[in-house]
Design goal:
40% helix, five-stranded mixed beta sheet, 5 helices, alpha+beta, 5 strands, 139 residues
């Protein structure tokens, strides 16, 4: 998926999008530029329906704790709603939000703050896929 940092973590995949590029400052409206990237991700998710997706919203430390928590919630839910609009089953999607509580970088410069304004996706096998893997039935 273009413009996403993808890394394997254990049995899952973590995909990080910089919210500073996905969203305008203090906004939960997804930018047009990133709708194409999210559409690409949705196509992959629809191709592999045995996976679940955890959508996590994060912010930097500017603004109050309450504002940041609400903004990270709105951003995570905006991504969820976008995926649903592209045919990804809502039952596969879970949203969590953390405001400014889980920075990846020190909030000591604008460049680092932008990196902390992010949405992360954790893609992992559902129970059916895990069982098939145990039984050696994965194709």
């Amino acid at each position: 998926v273009p413009n996403a940092q993808v890394e394997r973590i254990g049995e899952g995949i973590n995909m990080t999008f910089e919210s500073g590029l996905m969203f305008k400052i203090n906004s939960a409206e997804i930018s047009d530029a990133y709708k194409a990237d999210l559409t690409s991700a949705a196509e992959v998710f629809n191709k592999y329906p045995e996976t679940n997706i955890l959508i996590e919203g994060h912010t930097d430390d500017t603004g109050t704790d309450e504002v940041n928590m609400a903004l990270s919630e709105k951003r995570a839910k905006a991504v969820r709603d976008f995926f649903v609009s592209k045919g990804v089953s809502e039952s596969r999607l879970e949203t969590k939000w953390y405001g400014e509580t889980q920075p990846k970088y020190p909030n000591d410069s604008e460049a680092n703050r932008q990196k902390n304004r992010r949405v992360e996706l954790a893609i992992y096998a559902n129970d059916k896929m895990k069982q098939e893997a145990k039984e050696g039935k994965l194709q």
